[in-house]
Amino acid sequence: MPKFVFAYHGGKKPESEAEGQQMMAAWQSWMETHKDAMVDPGNPVGMSKTVTGSGVVDNGGSNPLSGYTLVNAPDMETAIDIAKGCPFVDHDGSIEVVEAIEM
Fold first, then answer.
1. Spans of all domains in the chain
2. pLDDT digits (tens, 9 = 90+) for 44-85
3. Which of 34, 47, 75, 77 has the greatest number of beta carbons closer than 10 A?
């Protein structure tokens, strides 16, 4: 079955402990709903470094990564449907869905 990467961009941090608990509960519910598809539920990410042929820069480029998830899905449309239900999009975030091509 194809594997898809959900690359999270943007999003906002909770403004209170209560909001943080609500956000975590929403994430746990979403992950439980799609547990059979989850290859790696992922994590948030920290500061990135951009490596090019001319050196290394401390930034995430024009659209820095906030986190990731790996899922199995039969096709792109199904992967997109899973991503649409992710609570990240409810907190000013976007999800780039890309198929990981097997070699």
1. 3-100
2. 998 888 888 999 988 777 788 999 999 999 999 999 999 999
3. 34
